[in-house]
Design brief:
By secondary structure, this protein is α+β, with helices and mostly antiparallel strands. The protein is built from three helices and twelve strands. It has a single domain, classed as Nucleoside Triphosphate Pyrophosphohydrolase (Alpha-Beta Complex). The N terminus and C terminus are likely disordered.
Length: 193
């Protein structure tokens, strides 16, 4: 089953508590550079297993998973990160919720990635790695473990693009050093969007 581009749904929209829809919680784990400390420019992604029965097999996606009975979305994302990479961020920020055309509700949280990705213990998926915003825009990322490029799962790609855009807009609205047309990549050089 392939999800198409998700629609952002405000927190107050009815239907978010509909128990008949599958509910997942995912984490945007990000890093910033010293030249752009307020603008996330790298995102930790998981290369999903090549199992046809799972969502987005063989594609790059955010870490997270299905909400279990009695869990809140925050408890879900905390549990999933601990299970998948043995990582517990010091705090989370609620980013928003998305409803895909396949009627999956995705609650999205963000947190800084304070650990070195090489030190994380991947227990689910084929690979993990930091993806640049350029790779997110392209919709592809190279897997060193597999020796090949794989595509990003479209709902997760769109969530990352929305997240980056929101941070960029906040910096611009505060009179920050960036315009909507440029951002600083991981090397601190300006790039056109």
């Amino acid at each position: 089953m392939t999800d198409s581009i998700p629609s952002f749904i405000p927190e107050t929209r009815t239907g978010l508590d509909d128990r008949s829809r599958p509910v997942v919680a995912v984490a945007i784990l990000y890093q910033t550079s010293s030249s752009t400390p307020n603008l996330p420019n790298q995102f930790l992604l998981q290369l999903r297993d090549d199992i046809p029965q799972i969502s987005h097999p063989g594609r790059w996606a955010l870490f997270g998973g299905h909400q279990e009975a009695g869990e809140t979305p925050l408890e879900t994302v905390q549990r999933e990160l601990e299970e998948e990479i043995s990582y517990s961020p010091p705090q989370f920020t609620y980013f928003g919720s998305y409803l895909t055309h396949s009627q999956v509700i995705r609650h999205v949280f963000s947190a800084p990635l304070l650990a070195d990705p090489k030190e994380l213990q991947l227990t689910e998926g084929q690979d993990l790695g930091l993806s640049t915003i350029e790779e997110v825009h392209q919709g592809q990322r190279f897997s060193a473990r597999l020796g090949q490029s794989r595509s990003l799962a479209e709902p997760h790609r769109q969530i990352l693009l929305d997240f980056f855009q929101r941070h960029q807009d906040e910096i611009c609205s505060r009179g920050g050093p960036f315009t909507r047309e440029t951002y600083s990549d991981s090397n601190g050089t300006g790039k056109n969007l």
